[in-house]
Design goal:
- With 142 residues, this protein is α+β, with helices and mostly antiparallel strands.
- It is 36% helix and 23% strand.
- The protein starts with 24 loop residues before the first helix and ends with a helix.
- Mean pLDDT is 83; it is low at 49-58.
């Protein structure tokens, strides 16, 4: 070894190769839930029991669940999502589902870099104009 050789290091590679990033299922679920709620015609996420439990959780400070009605499976480079939604009466369910799928895929892929391989959407209910929300009904009865 010549002079100064001991002070030199081997190249470490690009910053992208110096470690690993993992993204929790809950992070992807939160991103997907917010993206789905942005779609006109989506009244709520989650159905029946999950919304009832969610209404109780929402009253606890810091307990608001952005992931209600969203389930993600996250791998190293891909993710798949299942969403349960309630739509407003009168909207085209096919159009709402298409727009939800597009919004969710765009948001998740942009924010996480994961490839979204599928977004399954289950429409579990329709919000009629004269229906009281479960959350509103529970808040009146205290």
């Amino acid at each position: 070894m010549g002079p100064g050789a001991a002070g030199r290091r081997a190249p470490l590679g690009t910053p992208a190769t110096r470690g690993r990033t993992t993204i929790a299922d809950g992070v992807v679920e939160k991103i997907a839930g917010l993206a789905a709620r942005d779609v006109v015609g989506v009244h709520a996420l989650g159905t029946g029991l999950s919304r009832t439990f969610g209404a109780v959780r929402d009253r606890v400070p810091g307990g608001k669940s952005q992931t209600r009605g969203v389930k993600a499976e996250v791998g190293e480079v891909q993710t798949a999502l299942d969403l349960d939604i309630v739509v407003d009466y009168g909207v085209s369910i096919v159009e709402v589902a298409r727009t939800v799928r597009e919004n969710v895929i765009a948001a998740v892929e942009r924010m996480t870099g994961l490839e979204v391989v599928e977004v399954n959407i289950a429409v579990g209910d329709v919000k009629l104009p004269d229906d009281d929300d479960d959350e509103e009904a529970e808040q009146r009865v205290q």
